[in-house]
Design brief:
15 helices, binds uridine-diphosphate-N-acetylglucosamine, four-stranded mixed beta sheet, alpha+beta, 26 strands, UDP-n-acetylglucosamine1-carboxyvinyl-transferase, Chain, cell division
Length: 475
Amino acid sequence: MKGERLSSPLRLRRLPPRPISAASADAAANADADHRLVVSGGGRLAGHVGVSGSKNAALAVLAGALCCSSGAFALRGVPDLSDTRTMAAVLRSLGARVEEHGGGEVVVDAGAVTSVEPDSEAIGRIRAGFFVLGPLVARFGEAEVALPGGCRIGARPIDLYLRGLAALGAVVQLRHGKVRVEAANGKGLVGGQFHLDYPSVGATETLMTAASLADGVTILSNVAREPEVADLAKFLVTCGAQIEGAGTSTLVINGKKRLHGAEFTIIPDRIEAGTLMVAAAITRSCISLSPVIPGHLTSIMDKLSAAGCKIIQKGRHILEVSALSSPNNGDLQGFYLKTLPYPGFPTDLQPQFMALLTTCSGLSVVEESVFENRMHHVKELQKLGARIRLSGSSAFIQGKRHRSAALSGCPVEAADLRGGAALVLAGMAVEGVTEISGVSHIDRGYENFEAKLLSLGANIERKVEHQQQLMTGIA
Ligand SMILES: CC(=O)N[C@H]1[C@@H](OP(=O)(O)OP(=O)(O)OC[C@H]2O[C@@H](n3ccc(=O)[nH]c3=O)[C@H](O)[C@@H]2O)O[C@H](CO)[C@@H](O)[C@@H]1O
Ligand SMILES: C=C(OP(=O)(O)O)C(=O)O
């Protein structure tokens, strides 16, 4: 086998998975607890807020770190989220060393990997766990990975991952709910060509890492152009990979025999930044935020500006968002929004923008084109008094004036991560108290969410029911 050998007899796909770490056990316990966010709406926000490192870039880089067979290295800007802790558990279950040093620094040593079969329970909790398939099969010539979890926002198939790996010389089998992939030549993956029918983020990331260790040149076309994909490419190049075309729709990858680890800083989270920008808009406030990469936020700034918000770049990585007064008859105007792959409007901000549109004047239309079932928040926004008509993947929103008496707080339930964030934002805009359950979804992707909103002046508390305890800010 050309692929790196796991030290015999520890070809661990036959060994039981390693136990999940204490940290991830805590995270699991946390997820089981009944956390609620209690938001008292109607107030304004002010001040400056910090943006964490990108969840989706961090998850892809943590998976990509499995390509690196030499020594320990530090990743910076890794947000402390239940998803990143779960990904750390996935890596540990393979034998990698992962140390969370605080302040966003995570030290990874994937040199000691002893298994090609990650813990299935951890894989099933997040979408990005499946991304380890690429590095594992490329490095060891085989891998067996359970089907992934993540937000329930559509069927989320994995056909592109599997067809792409087959184009690199892998044989793929699906059995007992797991995907087993082996290099057909019994050695390792070989360079090849693959056209993605749809520019899938995860499939692009998985195939890019696999191709980085394949024998020869790989050309991937119609790939995802998301900044998180480009960040993963930047990380792999720092580790010795040869990748051209990151950020464009074609990647040309010249595979290397080995990659070495390297220090790397994750980009700021454009989805968290967008969520905080909506927080300013929906409460008709003025806030600033940093660090951001303004170029990643173009479609978001365009929509907020069209609504009547004023956005000023105050420094290279600082934005100020103001909705204190609007040129459009004094209030924000509704608009048409369609989610698309980058550089189009991100699906991960669709629910938050829908919450905003319920407070804007006029009729707005939101078309979700990326995922076929990402409208769970509509029913909950309707409970708050929003007038939304759903037709397939399109929502027609009859806007209301901000602080209209018709929008009022009540208990609502988050069914997924961004839908949950949308309910928090809506709760900040409506009169009265909104109690949001299903908070474990929000904790998957927002670092210190309520602490950040509190620091801006929001009235928000975390209630942990079964501990009979009311906590404010971060738990
Ligand atoms: C961990 C992570 O990075 N998650 C992000 C990633 O998810 P994820 O990588 O899962 O999203 P994809 O880009 O793959 O999905 C987009 C569309 O492609 C389809 N598809 C995907 C793969 C496949 O093999 N076949 C197929 O048909 C999906 O069903 C979906 O309709 O990108 C999404 C789109 O920006 C974001 O919402 C998620 O936050
Ligand atoms: C859909 C999301 O995440 P995941 O792909 O991890 O489910 C998200 O971040 O909004």
